[in-house]
Amino acid sequence: EAQVTQNPRYLITVTGKKLTVTCSQNMNHEYMSWYRQDPGLGLRQIYYSMNVEVTDKGDVPEGYKVSRKEKRNFPLILESPSPNQTSLYFCASSPGGGTKTQYFGPGTRLLVL
Amino acid sequence: KQEVTQIPAALSVPEGENLVLNCSFTDSAIYNLQWFRQDPGKGLTSLLLIQSSQREQTSGRLNASLDKSSGRSTLYIAASQPGDSATYLCAVMGETSYDKVIFGPGTSLSVIP
To answer: Which chain B residue lies closest to A54 (C-alpha atoms)?
Structure first.
């Protein structure tokens, strides 16, 4: 089944403890992206990747890192999480960048205490 | 900086009614515009994607139009059903096919049986 998977789905952590949220797609898509969704602010793009080893900043990259060492994986790294990073995170992928639609993962709900 | 707005923020209609959701964007230099649906607690599902060179796209009871020069898109839903109840989001991608994506805040639709 074609899908975008994220792990974990739910995470509670404490300020400063490094964490990684994984994202994997099995559709051989080139474009992958991370978003966060907050009440009143909507969905905002954090980072995106056009292909292996090619990434760029979205609108809200501060406090986050990403890597794209393999085409199928696009992990989101929070080196030192803070409470303002409490949010619902979505990973998405697309086969041809803007020529094709994006497929979204189920979301990861993160709470930073 | 691109800004995307959606009107109305919320809409409640009786079943069977035709309805229009609006999306506006400030920078007409876009590569595409997408409409998504989000059910409570779930990820996003793509509905329609319109390339900047296109004027409209149709899928079943849904029709999306794009007027790039005026910075507007509409999503028309015919013969609404209770199952259409969800939040509808529009998103624009920047000038190239591998660029930033900016989402609107969404319209929350409730279709009353």
So the answer is: B98
Q: Does B106 touch chain A (CB under 8 A)?
A: yes
Contact flag B103-A44 (C-beta cutoff 8 Å): yes
**pLDDT(A99) > 80:** no
Residues in chain A: 113
- List Cα–Cα distances, A82 to A9, A14, A48, A62, in angstroms: 19, 8, 22, 11
Q: Provide the pLDDT for residue B96.
A: 75
> Which two three-digit tokens encode residue B40?
């409570």
The distance from CA B109 to its chain's CA centroid, rounded to whole angstroms, is 12
CB neighbours (10 Å) of residue B3?
Answer: 12
pLDDT category at B98 given cuts 50, 70, 90 is: confident
